[in-house]
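ok trying this again, last paste got cut off
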Amino acid sequence: MTQGERQNYQWRPNTNDSTTNLRYDLEMDKWMTAYKNNERKHRPSSFKADLGVIGLFVQLVFSLLTLVVLGLIQFAKWMRS
């Protein structure tokens, strides 16, 4: 096989028959599966993301409670004076 044949994709069948189309469909399925598996590996897991969001809400609740308590203490001090 010459370089010109390789560049013109003559090393792969270029027909439009059902066998060639099936082979290309199967090859594309394998490529898409590999792509999706790789994408899943590099994406943060939803469990970690969910824990982060839950942690933010817990921190918000405690911060608001602290703010309310400190406000009540300051209000009590102001009322005494």
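PB: full thing came through this time. The chain has two domains: 1-43, 45-81.
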